[in-house]
Structures
1.
Amino acid sequence: MALSGLDIYKLLPKTNCRKCGFPTCLAFAMQLAKKAVELTKCLEITKEAKVLLESSAQPPIKLVTVGAGENKLEIGNENVLFRHEEKFFRPAGIGIILEDSLSDAELSNRISQINKLHFERIGQNISVNLIAIKQVSADKAKFINAVKKVSELTKLGLVLYSSDAESIRPAAQLTANRKPLVYAADKNNYKELAKIAKEFSLPLAIKEENLEKLSELSGAVSSEGASELLLDTSDKPINEKIWDLTQIRRLALKKNFRPFGYPAISVVKNKDNYEQIIEAGIYVLKYSAIVLLEGFAPEEILPLLTLRQNIYTDPQKPLQVEPKAYPIGQVSVNSPVLITTNFSLTYYTVLSELEASKIPSYLVSVDTEGMSVLTAWAAEKFTPEKISESINKFEIPQKVNHKQIIIPGYVAVMSGDLEEKSGFKVVVGPKEAAGIPSFLRNL
Amino acid sequence: MPLEALKEKWSNTVDIISIGATKAEGGSRDRAVKVGGQTGLPYLFEESDIPNKPVVAFEISDIEPLDWPNTLKEPYGKTLKDPVEWAVKCEKEFKAELIAIRLAGTHPDNGNKSDTDAVKLIKDILSAVKIPLIILGSNDETKDNLILPQCAEAAKGERCLIGDAVQKNYKTLAAACLAYGHNIIAESPIDINIAKQLNILISEMGMPSNRTVINPTVGALGYGLEYAYSIMERARIAALGGDKMLSQPFICFVGQEAWRTKEAKASITEFPDWGKELERGILWEALTANAFLQAGADIILMRHPKAIEIVKKNIDELMQPITSNQ
């Protein structure tokens, strides 16, 4: 939580000693608030004030990095409780749990399937981020072997999932350059795990059964020198998880409560194929920066990754599609030509209706800078001139042998002008995309 | 550092809407479905009361749906051709708590069924099932204005939920709902200001605010879900903060949106990387519903019985009494 110049001033010695190079403490405070000077310039500041000021200069939720290289996952640094207040910045990492009891063949098989879990949606590539190797066998060697195998067979980030420091240490040593997440420290093992995390500069998840104990553990672990933490409040009914996750985010943002100034991690407990996706979905919606689950079938992961993509979309900056003439289905020279904007939601809504109609068509997306039909029309980004220009630029006259275009019902008013400018006959389509199939059938 | 939970206290409550009238209340339903009444944001039991759970309504149609994929048609089988049997199947076999009948076939482009047909169907459904009913028009303004008031009259006293009223066409439906004792759905195009404006207009006709439900117009997962998600969060925060003209429960038309998407419908042969189509479709609908529950949805219209089962199980878990451990 950023302090104002006046808040900072109250914490300064107020001696106007000028040793910082500014004429007054207030002037220095103003510069500090703008982050234009370093706090170390003040030689007379008390220790308590220094701690307070330093912690207020940190982001309320620390940026934590899991993994290295091109597949590294950066989480944290979030600023809001609701996406409409600004946006959710760093999409939650989705990780698949593999148990070390799996046979070598099954392990390889699953890893290769998990590696394929990336999809293209609305021009973005969405994918799974992590593989968590979970120790379930008492045999330490089995865990190490599985970690080794996974690290060889995937470029995804790694999670070392064990509470046994004796097993974690060699696994961490083996994969330290991949910067795996260690999951998880609890009240019994935190000293050893914090030591390993510190030694190899690894992120460390900490886990306790309730918020009170978690905050204590957070303080204890950071005094042991582990600095990149993730917070887990253990298995519990879903509504209690929602409360915990909300409290962690609220206290970090609104109270600058340092023990909770880290991203949260949630592990899905449901085993049912469907229900685990629902549970994972709630964690994605409710502030979890990493969600680990066992399911990895594409029909389960695609919806989950899509939900994450939706929720982490910037509400102030609408997604856009590339302006062009899209052929939808097996188009021919007789296919109808529909005009719309390049606002993703509009485009994909029209697209799904066109596909539903099963009538092959050209869909021309005009560059409206990501505005929807009516907004773009009001802002003069969706005008007869722009539409005519797009039709020619995207070579509609060369693609079809008719002279007819269909425009959204909401901009019927531009028909005459557009006919004149484009030389095409303008047909007014329905106002809502839902009307397109029946409109096209009756065309 | 000692930990003190940060609890939000709000000044207003979501209105409680009651759908369906029992014999004692002048109708013929077995029981009424109540939604709303929350004093806080979704499922934060530590700081709010959530007296009523959200409910799922099975969405059925007066004509056999043409655009449903086989994965969605299969559980209903031949009842798809007979809306009354279909409704009974939802109630008896799938334990539906609410049914929404979409009068799609009254649309001029879709069979143009008459007002007499629609009225007869509503009466037949009301006598065949005992659960409360939602009645939806065909989205043809003229036809809806002709048909919905007659359906409202035929269902007099049953306290149905009827929709949708929109900003430029709400008077006929609002008058009918008012006259025959029904609740009304007020639809706005993902726009909090229009939602509020329409609620004001409807209330100015004398409709008590606890008989209106807000349809914020939702998009499916992957197709604009986040717009409605945030509009609902904003509207609910405004409602809890004191805005009486936004404090009505939300209804979300999830089934129609989810099952229109390519991801819910496309076969595995068409998109092998997307995995099995049945499971994918079910999850597409269930996860869409799940997101809106987290944004405050009170009534959700859905289609696939398995997706509904999953969502209802999730609702039960969300509504479980908490064992406070803080």
2.
Amino acid sequence: MSSPSSPTDLNIDHVAALARLALTPEEKAHFASQLGDVLAAIEKLKQVDVTGVEPTAHAFPLFNVWEADAARPGLPVQEALRNAPAQRDHMIVVPKVVE
Amino acid sequence: MSDALHYQSIAELSAALQARRISAVDLMQAVIARTRAVEDRVHAFNSYDFEDALAQARASDERRARGEARGPLDGIPIGLKDVIAVTGQPLTASSRMLQTFVSPYDATVTQRLREAGAICWGRLNMDEFAMGSSTENSAFGPTANPYALDCVPGGSSGGSAAAVAAGETIVSLGSDTGGSIRQPASFCNVVGLKPTYGLVSRYGLIAFASSLDQIGPFGRSVEDTAIVLGAIAGHDPRDSTSWRADVPDYRAALQSRRGPWRIGIPREYFGEGLDPEVAASVQAAVRFYESQGCTVKDVSLPHTEYGIGVYYIIATAECSSNLARFDGIRYGHRSKDAKDAVEIYAESRAEGFGPEVKRRIILGTYVLSSGYYDAYYLRAQKVRTLIRQDFLNAYRDVDVILTPTAPTPAFRRGAKADPLAMYLCDIYTIGVNLAGLPAVSVPCGFSADGRPIGMQLIGQPFGEAELLAMAHTYERAHAWGQRRPTL
């Protein structure tokens, strides 16, 4: 796919599916128009000359951090499951994913 | 002096506790009484647990009786934004998604405050998942500005700012991703500090945009803010972005560091859109520093106008990724109607998230999606580099940068229904997060109709001691922060 030519490239059905977010038809129409305005503001970034500029993911350099490989107490099972929407026998209950 | 207990400073209260003129239980009861009296108008809290707070106060009194008091915070009530984990207490992020969630562990900041003896209490209201600038995006109703009840307290940490301003707690913690501590501090006439990225652990903070988020303190004075920062700052092995920096004695620095400072005034922060009363108050503060022997110099941060665009790409991209964990499976809201796993994800998220969170997830997913990554996300990260370099270039000539915190004083609820108009509230605060710098908002005046105005001091990385000393120099000569709201 080529780079976007205009903010109207926002295909809200496709993006909502990627985000696993069910939207009503009203939300889709509303968000598409509001985000069109926001994307128009974002388009201004195209005016900036970024030739040779390195991207910044974090304001300070980050290095991988290793922890000592030592056992320590974790959350007890009851605590870890305390907020599960459905549970049985120390497991989270989910719908069947294979037939 | 001799404000009601709920409006006293940490220094006054800890002296009274130490001299046994009051007990921690007396203090907690005074704060509870104040909260009961004003909370129906302010709505700073999502919930509170008076019994738990009083039990912590009794424990503090018992420590003191044994001669084991832990320092200035022992027995001082501190309210926590409802995005910071406290064992056994609700943690909702003001979202229906987490309406029934109870935290199984303490955030590092919570643990450190407990070690200092502070009473961690209350779940303070906020914009849902910290996304917003007015606390109107809370699923549990908006917070009012104690100085103008029909106006917003700012956001996203609006409850944290309003509770301190209204005397419903002595100090509080918020979180700041694009201005969410500083802007509500300026709207509510309190001091609010966003630390250098990495100074304060994010462990136990519900993530919004991980490369921008920092936890920081609110207080009614610079000294109170400095005391809380000293308790929560410092390296934490449980946060891999936590920095191995020395934590200076911020409170002592208020006395020992007296400037004079070289102050930069960025011309891009004083242009179109700045309210004239805000401009006049901030310019008066600049003249004050000049009268104290500080050098004032014009500086330029030429990429300022791109800050909003960069922020709303990077923050939404990170949020779309961070909020993917809310899928209705392991915790949080699960839709009753869904028939299979994919429907559980999509329907639970549709039912659990409010409109602003959905908008940002959509935008963030879009800018990261195949074919758009280079045009939006990568370009934004490159402009982020230029914004950071602007600040570092300015710091060759000046020690600190002084700006308005927000373009206007607090606005009326409902006044900014258009998302883009709301996003522009953060225009002076966003650059600081993108560059990872520390900044503090300090009360510096009122509009003619009585709404507070704040100025922002932006420091160099890990320059919090200098920033707080500079803020203290201003505060000593001005009484804005002592003007209480009429409630």
